[in-house]
Amino acid sequence: MPRPIDPERHRARRLQIIDAGLTVFASHGYAGATTALICRTAGIGSGTFFHYFPTKADLLAAIIEWGTAETREFFAAQEGRADARQVLFDFVRHATAELEDERAAGFVRAVGGQVGDTGVAAALEADDRAVRLGLRTWVERAQGDGGVRTDLPADRLVEWIVLLLDGFASLVAGRSGFEAAREAPMLLEQTERLLAPTR
């Protein structure tokens, strides 16, 4: 009779592999991130790896999904706040803080090379939906209380916030010397200009 699965232990092991995968994808790219190297970094055997992730692409998608879960958790944690405008700025800070991780640039590049994989593409689409849904909720609330401009529909403002964040991530990944921590104040300044209520 098989042993019962300990959910906490299962979750911890899965996160251990996800963290190792993030590290290896970031430093070696997708092609160079062999499952053997990921296993060594995680301190596990290949059997354990394949028990959790059938393929390397499944692991890449799982890392994206982990980020999506964090985005949903961020927005869920804001419920009850009355300062909708500030929630939007807090999310921009949250997104840029993730890009301050030294692994972020390499990971963004690794993902960029795998957008043709159906599982990775689906994970990216789900992540984009979660970001847009969360932002739209708070943009609409901020428009309702006069905290942000109302001359553009909420979806259009969301589109531009996403454009700013995606462009910022692209520069972190693609331009040597573009550091998230140093450049984040400029991103916040541009977000402020974008959202400023019309006079």
From TrEMBL:
The protein's matches in PROSITE patterns, at most eight in alphabetical order, are given as:
HTH_TETR_1, HTH_TETR_2
The residue ranges marked as DNA-binding region are 34-53
* Classification via PANTHER family: HTH-TYPE TRANSCRIPTIONAL REGULATOR RUTR, HTH-TYPE TRANSCRIPTIONAL REPRESSOR RV1474C
Record-annotated HTH tetR-type domain positions: 11-71
Protein's name according to its UniProt entry: TetR family transcriptional regulator
GO molecular function terms listed in the Swiss-Prot or TrEMBL record: DNA-binding transcription factor activity; transcription cis-regulatory region binding
Keyword presence, DNA-binding: yes
Keyword vocabulary terms for this entry? DNA-binding
Q: What is the scientific name of the source organism?
A: Streptomonospora alba
Matches recorded under InterPro entries: DNA-bd_HTH_TetR-type_CS, Homeodomain-like_sf, HTH-type_TetR-like_transc_reg, HTH_TetR, Tet_transcr_reg_TetR-rel_C_sf
- Gene3D superfamilies cross-referenced by the UniProt entry: Tetracycline Repressor, domain 2
KW DNA-binding (keyword) present: yes
